[in-house]
UniProtKB/TrEMBL annotation:
SUPFAM superfamilies: Trimeric LpxA-like enzymes. Residues 4-85 form the PglD N-terminal domain. Substrate binds at G76. It comes from the Bacteria. The active site is at H144. Belongs to the transferase hexapeptide repeat family. Pfam families: Hexapep, PglD_N. This is PglD N-terminal domain-containing protein.
Length: 216
């Protein structure tokens, strides 16, 4: 049987997840999600959007989680995502972990926490551990033994080398490369197209080839 899915936020990221979720394989659920409903306080944000009848039910702040439903958090900012994910979790809500059927990700040797989303054409190698509410965009490769913390945002066409350590709330923009064994601390940001050859400190923003500090 299908399972009801609530998506937190009906913005652009939420609309992307709506279509992705319809084509994903939710772990432990064979028949997908139906219906898919948004939680948002912006009542008119879906006006003019073509989402096959998808609707906003209510703001997330007033929502009481349903034990039979699953949840996804579609907020790009990692800190805000963490806040709203905790709000639902503290009220007893359960987040889905979903992996595209077009991704190369073996569930027997990867460790994906609740709320993780793996997009099409990703390659997730052996013994990778991804923390709760981490989003991996399409065509990204995560090599063996990589570990990430909570609420990371990993863009498309990113390459993360083996045994790299990614902290909490890290944002890695598209086409970045993280060399093997690199440590990326909490709240760091990696600019698009960067090649990271050294450890990145907490809260640091790096950009370039090789990646250099642009903000700390």
């Amino acid at each position: 049987m299908t399972q009801k899915l609530y998506i937190i936020s009906a913005g652009s990221f939420g609309r992307e997840l709506y279509y992705l979720a319809r084509g994903f394989s939710p772990r432990h659920h064979q028949h997908g999600f139906e219906p898919i409903i948004f939680l948002d306080d912006r009542e008119d944000i879906l006006q003019g959007k073509h989402l096959n009848g998808a609707r906003i039910q209510e703001p997330v702040e007033s929502h009481q989680p349903e034990s039979s439903a699953a949840y996804l958090c579609a907020i790009g900012d990692p800190k805000i995502r963490e806040h709203y994910a905790a709000l639902i979790t503290d009220r007893g809500g359960k987040f889905a972990t979903i992996v595209s059927e077009k991704a190369n990700c073996n569930p027997d040797n990867t460790h994906l926490k609740q709320g993780v989303i793996i997009s099409p054409f990703c390659v997730i190698s052996c013994d990778v551990q991804l923390g709760p509410h981490t989003f991996v965009s399409s065509h990204t490769t995560i090599s063996h033994d990589v570990q990430s913390g909570n609420c990371c945002q990993i863009g498309s066409h990113v390459v993360i080398g083996g045994k790299a350590m990614i902290g909490n709330r890290v944002t890695i923009h598209p086409h970045a490369t993280i060399l093997p064994g690199i440590n990326i601390a909490d709240d760091a940001t990696i600019g698009a197209g960067s090649v990271v050859i050294r450890d990145v400190h907490q809260g640091e923003t790096v950009f370039g080839i090789p990646a250099m500090t642009v903000k700390h």
